[in-house]
Amino acid sequence: MSIRKRIFDKVSVLSIDYYDRQPQSKKELYFIYWVLLKATLSAGLHVINAAYRLRNCTKGRMVTVKGRLKIAAKGNIIIGNGCRIWSHIGTTQISAGPRATIEVGENTFINTGTIITSRKHIQIGKNCQIANQVIMMDDDFHDVTVRESKSGKDNIIIGDNVWIATRAVILKGVTIGEGAVVAAGSVVTKDVPAYTLVGGVPAKFIKTISQNNTIEN
């Protein structure tokens, strides 16, 4: 697709958003061009910001970061192509301890104020939507009794096309299947099957979701 065709398509979409029709005057057309230029410049700045904020991480192409993301990369943090991370209203924090790994799949969106902390392994799939103030922790970070965790037991695995709503908490040892939805404010302590909606404290099954309703970015 040519650059001219891409610009024309974007102008057409923006015109529908603003006017519910195509521009009918030069003034309207120039306004749409201004909106498009502003959005393009903003996206470019977010790409530059991502390069700086994620400089100690492994980062894919066209990753964008909005705001002052806090990163503690003593372990490995891997961010896939096209991911968007917002940290402009509440500070988003991603922390991987020594020998820990955090992986975020392609085109996943992480909203403001989210905290992702790993001492072992947290894997987030492709095209996921992580709402604001979500918490993921694969460790208790203190022991009631002295013990050693079994390898792999406490990992958090989140499949593709998963939606985790506002202020949900994902605790250690949880696997969330593809296409699942976690309701706002839920505390997930057990595995969530694919294409199901769960909610509550602790989170419980609410209903099955049709595979046609998988989240698209």
UniProtKB/TrEMBL annotation:
Keywords: Acyltransferase, Membrane, Repeat, Transferase, Transmembrane, Transmembrane helix. Pfam families: Hexapep. The keyword rRNA-binding does not apply. SUPFAM superfamilies: Trimeric LpxA-like enzymes (SSF51161). It comes from the Bacteria. CDD domains: LbH_MAT_like. This is Acetyltransferase-like isoleucine patch superfamily enzyme. It comes from Mucilaginibacter gotjawali. The lineage of its organism: Bacteria, Pseudomonadati, Bacteroidota, Sphingobacteriia, Sphingobacteriales.
